[in-house]
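Supplementary Methods. Inverse-folding protocol.

Structures were first reduced to a discrete structure-token string of length 434. This string, shown here, constituted the complete conditioning input.
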């Protein structure tokens, strides 16, 4: 009997990426990529081709590799395609000169100017205001027994907080809320709405910088707002241009609110769908023990964090990541969500464990571009979740989890809505003003 040769084994088929089904639960697809194509070249919905880096060890290397530039000028695509690799509308509004798009030495200079606003001490001083905002927002719907926690809670909390930190007057903050809402809706708003909102925000910030400069006192005052601090640094030899100041304020607002919206939304959803972990945290909070809250926030950032892919990077010279050769000009996207579920780095990575100790996740990045606002986001996340679970102890989803929809978009991961129900708190009056 003659042995017949076996037909060749077909190459494994990569899963579909960037579909609505993928957006709902991307983790099985990322697990496939980690195993079969850990550095994978793909065509994005925008038409731009990019490398996706999915393993933890490769992701950490790429995030700290100086040969991967943040400056879109290094992209080898035609000029029309470069408009697809940043925040919509930022080019037309002259907002490109910010921390997400520049490299040292300019990155080092600008980061130094703004870093003082996010020191642990400054964030700790801001904690009472975050708690006040949290309670006031809950007061608005506490007597109703139902709420959409995205639109009524997770979204306005970081908007008002970052506006306070920047020094946006209270009477103007609702405008910022409207503009920011258009920016995070992406495909859900009117055509051109994102670019118009970015342009309005940029114009407002430029005007606010002018107004603050005219009345800036000679010496800084305690708790001076961030825009005043940027103006002061600029006027004392740091050479911060007006465009840089407006761009800096813009990116702090943009990056400082959408990530926290998603942290609160994704975190609440994870707790409501893992009742044993939620009960564990509530018991800890009832005993006035914050240790589990602190490790729990880190676990929620790892398990289903607010930033799915790190922002764009472009190779400035030939390099190798995970055995793949990357050509100069190629875009590289580090998939934080995939790296943070890597079983080579995390035991039982698909299990939510609020007490997880060895948790060096990449949820806020790594290297010189590590998220500057991480301390503030952690404060807001901890305050929001602890207050929700304490004041509304029987909080539950008001719909089947399968009915929830996730926002489209490449970088961020967040829910469109989060309908909940709970026992109404009688006698709570909505505040007149936040």
């Amino acid at each position: 009997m003659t042995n017949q040769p076996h037909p060749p084994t077909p190459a494994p088929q990569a899963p579909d990426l960037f579909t609505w089904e993928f957006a709902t639960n991307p983790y099985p697809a990322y697990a496939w990529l980690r195993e079969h194509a850990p550095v994978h070249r793909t065509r994005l919905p925008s038409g731009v081709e990019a490398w996706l880096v999915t393993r933890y060890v490769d992701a950490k290397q790429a995030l700290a590799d100086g040969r991967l530039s943040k400056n879109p000028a290094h992209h080898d695509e035609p000029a029309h395609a470069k408009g697809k690799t940043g925040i919509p509308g930022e080019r037309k509004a002259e907002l490109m000169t910010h921390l997400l798009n520049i490299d040292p030495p300019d990155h080092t200079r600008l980061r130094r100017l703004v870093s003082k606003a996010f020191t642990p001490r400054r964030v700790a001083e801001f904690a009472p205001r975050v708690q006040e905002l949290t309670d006031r927002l809950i007061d608005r719907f506490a007597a109703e027994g139902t709420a959409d926690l995205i639109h009524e809670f997770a979204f306005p909390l970081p908007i008002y907080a970052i506006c306070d930190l920047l020094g946006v007057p209270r009477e103007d903050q609702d405008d910022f809320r409207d503009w920011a809402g258009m920016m995070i809706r992406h495909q859900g708003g009117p055509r051109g709405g994102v670019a118009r909102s970015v342009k309005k925000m940029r114009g407002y910030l430029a005007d606010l910088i002018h107004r603050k400069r005219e009345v800036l006192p000679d010496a800084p005052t305690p708790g001076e707002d961030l825009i005043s601090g940027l103006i002061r640094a600029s006027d004392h030899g740091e050479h911060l241009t007006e465009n840089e100041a407006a761009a800096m304020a813009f990116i702090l607002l943009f990056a400082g609110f959408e990530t926290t919206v998603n942290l609160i939304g994704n975190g609440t959803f994870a707790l409501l769908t893992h009742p044993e972990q939620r009960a564990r945290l509530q018991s800890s909070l009832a005993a006035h023990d914050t240790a589990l809250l602190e490790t729990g926030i880190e676990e929620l950032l790892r398990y289903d964090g607010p930033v799915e892919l790190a922002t764009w990077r472009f190779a400035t010279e030939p390099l190798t990541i995970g055995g793949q050769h990357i050509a100069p000009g190629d875009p590289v996207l580090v998939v934080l969500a995939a790296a943070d579920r890597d079983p080579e780095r995390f035991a039982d990575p698909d299990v939510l464990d609020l007490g997880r100790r060895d948790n060096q996740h990449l949820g806020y990045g790594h290297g010189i571009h590590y998220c500057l606002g991480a301390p503030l986001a952690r404060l807001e996340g901890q305050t929001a979740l602890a207050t929700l679970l304490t004041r509304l102890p029987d909080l539950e989803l008001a719909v089947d989890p399968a009915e929830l929809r996730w926002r489209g978009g490449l970088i961020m991961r967040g829910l469109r809505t989060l309908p909940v129900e709970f026992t109404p708190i009688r006698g709570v009056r909505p505040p007149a003003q936040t």
